[in-house]
Amino acid sequence: MRHILIATHGLLASGARSTMEFLIGNVDNVDYITAYVDGQKPINEQIEEYFAKIPQEDEVVIFTDIKGGSVNQKMIPYCVRENTFLVSGFNLAVLIEVTMTPEKLTNEFLKAKIEEAREQLCLVEIEKNNTEENDDDFLL
Length: 140
Prior knowledge:
Elements: E1 2-9, H1 12-24, E2 30-35, H2 43-52, E3 59-64, H3 70-75, E4 84-88, H4 92-100, H5 107-120
């Protein structure tokens, strides 16, 4: 089985999971860790509890928010585990793609999906028209 763990500073992780559920439905294999949030367990404890419940033979893909950030650094020791991948930085496109892909994951596959996700990040430029608009412009 594949498990997805989104781990971020603050509430970004829970929001990403919520949005995934809204867009694709069932995301029971997607968990999250919200680090440094009042009322939450310390991050080390959250991580230990998460990995304690995952069977050793299962795939785990960890997505963190900032390369080199404290959350990312705390995940690195868990990457020695077989079939465990750590991706620093994410967007919804890569989260959904990795979650829904049925085939076994490889480094090459994840690198390709990360590159595709990068292409989703772009500046949308709209040509600005200097002409004056009125209500008649919107009538069919």
